Amino acid sequence: MSKKDGFVQIRGAREHNLKDVHLEIPRNALVVFTGISGSGKSSLAFGTLYAEAQRRYLESVSPYARRLFHQMPVPEVDSIEGLPPAIALQQQRGAPTTRSSVGSVTTLSNSLRMLYSRAGNYPEGQEILYAESFSPNTPEGACPTCHGLGRVYEVTEQSMVPDDRLTIRERAIAAWPPAWHGQNLRDILTTLGYDIDIPWRKLPKKDRNWILFTEEQPVVPVYAGLSPKEVQQALKRKDTPSYQGTFTSARKYVLDTFANTESASMKKRVSQYMVGKECPLCMGKRLRPESLAISFAGYDIAELSRLPLKQLATLLHPYARESAPGWDQMAATHPEKAIVTQRIAADLSDRLSVLLSLGLGYLTLERSTPTLSPGELQRLRLATQVHSNLFGVVYVLDEPSAGLHPADTQALLEALDRLKQAGNSMFVVEHALGVIRHADWIVDVGPEAGEHGGRVLYSGPPPGLSHVTDSHTRRYLFTDNGLAGRSIRSPRGWLQVEGVTRNNLANVDAAFPLGVLTSVSGVSGSGKSSLVSQVLVELVSRELGQELVAEADQGESIEHDMPATLGGRITAGMASIGRLVTVDQKPIGRTPRSNLATYTGLFDHVRKLFASTQAARTRHYDAGRFSFNVAKGRCGNCEGEGFVMVELLFLPSVYAPCPVCQGTRFNAETLEIRYKNKNIADVLSMTVDAAHDFFVDEPAIQRSLGVLREVGLGYLRLGQPATELSGGEAQRIKLATELQRTTRGNTLYILDEPTTGLHPSDVDKLIFQLDKLVQSGNTVIVVEHDMRMLAASDWVIDIGPGAGDEGGRIVASGTPAEIVHDKASRTAPFLKEFMP
Ligand code: ADP
Ligand code: ADP
Ligand code: ZN
Ligand code: ZN
Q1: From ligand 1's centre to the CA of 15, what distance in Å?
Q2: Do 419 and 557 sit in the same domain of this protein?
Q3: Rounded distance, CA 104 to CA 81, Å?
Q4: What ipTM, to 2 d.p.?
Q5: What is the CATH classification number for the domain harbouring 516?
């Protein structure tokens, strides 16, 4: 046997920015990939190792899948040897997750249904139900009234006609289809003799009801383009109509479309005209009455699914240990039932204990996954894998510590160790020092981002990294951690909120200092996001009369969980806040059409510059000519995307470069125009650094580029599509866009876990930028679990002490130096290590 046994050997990896990387990494070990944001860690771990494992797997399954894989991206690598099959537990930032629940993701609900089916208490005379009868997603289980949704949706006159001062011609019936289809319905009403030119509210009630709610669908002659009067004359003369039109009431249109359309955007459009209320039959429990009649430990299955997992575990424990009240009697009378109960309860308890140890005990089985943070979702999947009994596979994870308070990191490491001990390889992209220190092997990528990164600086056991001078990671891992020499700034006032009630917060009062940097901390699930990202954002924007930009949820909006309760008001401090900005890690766009240059506004200046060249003026090309969103200048084949979408059958669609413009996005005539010998596509392919040199004579462009370099994005290309940017990059682009505005000093910035995905050296850069916002007189509030950020703050608000029901209170509030002495704060001991 060669000494290479037990290693994965990679040769010539060149995906994205990787520079022909040769590397050997051990199997059956915890391997942590480190390096600053954009250095190439994900390109190596996911883009190369995982992608190749996936490709080989698909190739091995079937000829059919092999056909598909020809269209799948093949990683740029010469060879990989010794690579086991891989499972990725990757966080999908910003991407909409398909609707599922904690119970379904973890498969705990399946076991619970089995428990109710086989070991539940049935009312006298009721037959045993199959497990499916306890699922709202099956015909056997779903409540017949709400079809398992828990809510019923109806339309009302008010929901479909929001403004009754409008006439039908002025589109009073907002719920009707847009464009020609809506006009068609209007023309039908004219034929039927309804007045479409008086305000809706002046129409008789009987007519309004018929138009909105009738089930009838009369077919009538339509005379397009004629006035109401002319239509009546034409009818009398029995003229040949333009066509025969079928009438559909607004209600019928909305409900049919909602039930039948396959288009998410149509569904979303009509859903806004519907109003929902709790289903009167199942009271929101989503199941048939027969299923809800079965109980276990005094609860029906819906009630059990609403208990925090921690409480569920406590409830099941005595059954697993055969010590529940009345157990002996049951074991004597129904021995088979006792056996089933014990087995299922033991299995559930065992699996729940992993979830609890990963700090997720505050979740309920019923909680829908789109309301979870990416970190919570990843840990759920991780916990599920711990019990999968797989071995010999590679798990590839990105930042499993995301959203996790340091107090919970130990449990995470134990879960990773368990999977390793079962005979698996753990490849983890991570920034948290606690996780890096625990690694068996470190692969440090860098030294910088993008073009200046992509090399492996070190590959080996952690201590060896201490000799690698090029490594940024080395600095944070082996030398002191504090941010020395910071002085605390004092607030110039307080933003006070009172009576906040939301999720686990009950009647909480809080005071946020103005004009300084505040971190809100606490264990995962303690209520940080509920207080800051939900309530505070809503209250402040309401006070400012600022439209809350709706979360970009994809369709299904109607089924999204509404907060159960909402209470709270601002009692002081609004006078000095003029604007609210939330900076998150959501993508700056979902198609290749958005990019850094368009998002920051920098591209507007560049286009004007091209339009002002002699050649452009001669040809009468204006700035619009140089936009890939305007037809005249862009490539007609890809409509300026540079990419064409290739639809794959049951895999996510992929983008391929446009064969006509070769990805340049513009048509040949547009590309003939040059500024300083570069065409517009050349400019879009420049990095921010290169463009900074190129546009030396253009102060406005220089300024935007300068800020982008300051936030550490000098390596990005101007035209790099939004779809290729990481969450951390998107966040920094948003931040840079803010920083280039002329600051008015009265803005409140709110950031939820801005350090996610950031290397400690990136965190230092971020702190520097946040400081700049504060120095211009603004207020910054971040939700954080990164102790570096906390230590650098002027004020800390610690929420907790625990998660869910055990949290939701403000445990401590003060300067970082005050917080470390607070005995009640779980954050204090960790913060202490980062204080000078
Ligand atoms: P890290 O994981 O270390 O943050 P990445 O591997 O995501 O870094 O990125 C490394 C480099 O590759 C960056 O310059 C990034 O902009 C670029 N990159 C990432 N994804 C893509 C992509 N899909 N296409 C082209 N370039 C990409
Ligand atoms: P943190 O931000 O500190 O991790 P959260 O504010 O997200 O905590 O959560 C606090 C509590 O509120 C938890 O018990 C969590 O399960 C619950 N919660 C948060 N968001 C929702 C939601 N959309 N629906 C139901 N419960 C929620
Ligand atoms: Zn119902
Ligand atoms: Zn094209």
Answers
A1: 9
A2: no
A3: 36
A4: 0.94
A5: 3.40.50.300
